[in-house]
Design a protein that fits this description.
The structure is a single chain. With 621 residues, the protein is of the alpha/beta class. The chain has helices at residues 18-31, 36-69, 82-85, 94-100, 128-142, 159-170, 186-206, 214-217, 239-249, 262-268, 278-294, 317-327, 350-373, 382-399, 405-416, 435-439, 447-453, 463-481, 484-506, 519-527, 537-550, 566-582, 597-620, and strands at residues 75-79, 104-107, 146-152, 175-179, 230-233, 254-256, 301-305, 334-336, 428-433, 457-460, 554-562, 586-591. The protein has four domains: 1-70; 72-217, Rossmann fold, CATH 3.40.50; 230-346, Rossmann fold; 426-462 and 516-620, Rossmann fold (3-Layer(aba) Sandwich). The protein has 23 helices and twelve strands. Helix 9 links the parallel strand 5 and strand 6 (254-256). The longest helix is centred in the first third of the chain and has 34 residues, at 36-69.
Length: 621
Amino acid sequence: VNLGERLLIPIIDFSRGNADVIKNLTAVAVKMGFSRSKGKEAALAGIESQRKFEADQSALGRDLLEELRQSDQLGVVLFARSYMSQDSGANLGIAEKLAQLGVVPIPLSFLPLDSVNPKEYSDRPYWFYESKYIAGAAITASDPQLYGLSLTNFGCGPNSFILRIVEDIMGGKPLGQLEIDEHAAEAGIVTRLEAFVDTIKGFARSTKPQEVPRKSIYRATTTLVNSKKTFLIPRMSPHVDLLVAIMQSIGIKVIVLPEPNERNLFYADQVTSGLECLPYRVTLGDFMRFCYDDGTDLKNVEAVMAGAYGPCRLGKYALEQVRILKEVGVDLPIRTTVSNNAYRDTAIGPGLLRLVWKTYVVMDCLQRLLWRTRPYEKRTGAADELFDDVAGRIMSRLRKKEGFDDILRQATSEFKSLIDPYVPRKPLVGINGEIFLRSNRFSNQDLVGECEKAGLEVIVSPMAEWIKYISYRHLEDAINDRKFIKMIRSYVLKRVQEHDAHSAERLFRDLIDDKEPSTGHLLAQTSRWLSPKCGSEAVLSIGSGIEWMENPEFAGVISVMPHGCMPGGIVAAMSEKFSTLYHKPWINLTYDGFMETNNLARINNFAEIIRFCSKEGKEGT
């Protein structure tokens, strides 16, 4: 709407306490023309009002629950975010309709949620509403007069995992679920509410609730440590092969799972709701394929899954995959790690960690060589053959603990010799988005290959981009927390990573003449439009996308996301503005595991638009 400087965007994040919120609100007050002291005074008054509101809300909740216990009515707890439960327009008057059906609607926040520790049910309840839902479910399940009704929205990613643990806590007690969006009709909602109320009334008359043992609900997984067992690692991208070679060089037994295919989803879709993100289903299918098709004795095998502590759903993968595998009779431990500590919980020594980092940068560069060469190769397939050969030679050296810089120096000239100099340069586009999806050929249905078939040359955001980002955030957290030792360690790690990345990239400079932008630079690009505190891949995708849009060598951008991905949704919502601003196409492709003929058509249309714009530009000069 072009509000520009008139738009006030305070960052209200209480995760670090009140001080940061007061500072941000004070800055907004100054922008509005008030003094800093007045702004701080208003912020403090607002926080006090919120505290009083929450106290009054708790008192109302206690009174309501006491009245309910003295009556024979049933209460229906609304498991919903406040913007749904408190807005009768958004929820189509759910509370009024429930009251008309003879039950008492109860907002989730009216329950004594502080009386339940969510960490007794999950070791990483990192979403704000996840903790609320877990506590609310525990209270609802134990009270014979309370039942739960979940109000969710189409494509709500967190709920695809949160509601699974809520269902487990509720045990056999009915839990209603309503998905409401702009297409929801009031008549259909009423019919479903009537059926739900009939169900809970019948359940209350005939069934005695049985408490589910907390042990059977608890979600947890152990961090990655040295083990005598054999590790299973999903093949997300070719980077895994180099990582495995390093692990094998120090005596760790590893099995790299085969590239995913349709059988992954055949198995996974039988035990999931379809609302979970595609990478979760693909990697779950990896483990199920191994267990069902390989027939290996699982006693000496453990799986490995990357992890995080929010906001992405990745942090839930290992927890829920262990649960599902147990439900289908497979006892496969899954070890994980988290990005928030820059993967220090892997217990890998600094020397080995540095080598892992170098191999990630090297594989990023090798992929760049492949993508730079393949659209122009003299013989079809030659670039892929050379890529596999070079990667194989590096793996062999890594297993023997030998250096491989000489292989890298030769690689550029070897790839360069495959290029037909008479083939004109094709339009260059950048691909970014969710890291697994953009990296995994099966999941993105060979997006790079399809772009090349459409007459484009591509660059995909490198794997190292994410690792640099978490190191950057680790240092940032150390500074904010004023932890001096952590600050020094994080700074040294960041500097070493930068040095090693530049050293590796220099070996490929003859064919790849541009270096990857720093994390700080990408976040500076993003900060004009979105706060870097968003803390997800959205800040990287917007930053790299803008970097490409401003670069005259790039003709457009493609961002990819799994269905229901929040960071991807943020990028998709903003990209249209960037297309208008920079006069280049920026499209967003969503993947859910089904044959995406629509995406294929959009790729070809994207390529046609680029060619048309290029032709118009040449005719106009």
